[in-house]
Amino acid sequence: MRAVIVYESMFGSTKKVAEAIAEGLADCAEVSVVPVTSADAHILDGADLVVVGGPTHTHGMSRPSTRKMAGKRARKSASEVELVPGADSGPGVREWLASLGRLEVAGAAFDTRLQGLPAFTGRASKSIRRHLAHQGARIAASPESFLVEGLTGALVEGELERARDWGERLTRSDCLRGIVERRQAA
Predict the structure, then answer these.
(1) Is residue 98 predicted with pLDDT exceeding 90?
(2) Contact, 111 vs 125, CB < 8 A?
(3) Structurally, how many domains does the chain consist of?
(4) 45 burial class (0-12, 13-18, 19+ CB within 10 angstroms)?
(5) What kind and span of H or E run contains 18?
(6) What's residue 147's pLDDT?
(7) Domain containing residue 134: CATH number
(8) 149 alpha-carbon distance from chain centroid
(9) Which helix (H) or strand (E) covers residue 73, if one does?
(10) Which residue range forms the structural domain that includes residue 135?
């Protein structure tokens, strides 16, 4: 099975989650982890699974304006965060998903968000999942959130382990089991 993880990361936490999910998938899949700024139209060619993730900004997926605000925050002299190069100027997950045509893959969505009730923090993963399903992806799992701390954006302790576990659980979903069984039979 071939899996592609496409992620958007402002301060590095979402990238770390994407890499941990890849570790969880690695026993059952050939996995590519790709920043959204490097994902082109052909990245999904031959893929069986696409996992898409990004940070939660103003209750959902980032927009050009929220990415610029994050960049300004990182550049302040007293800032405790470091901006991933190009994160505030390149395309985000929202734009990448909008550029795709019909998807013939299984899909899953994740986000990073502040601790707290989703009604207050929002969840980008729900919007990502909706976009994937609207474009034809067979949803392999419920959207998942990984938590970060306040202004630093650092992952809460234990979240990378949860991300690895989630990646492992993805390989056991009914949707993906069918793909693996068909490949083994071929």
Answers:
(1) yes
(2) yes
(3) 1
(4) exposed
(5) helix 13-25
(6) 97
(7) 3.40.50.360
(8) 18
(9) helix 64-75
(10) 2-185
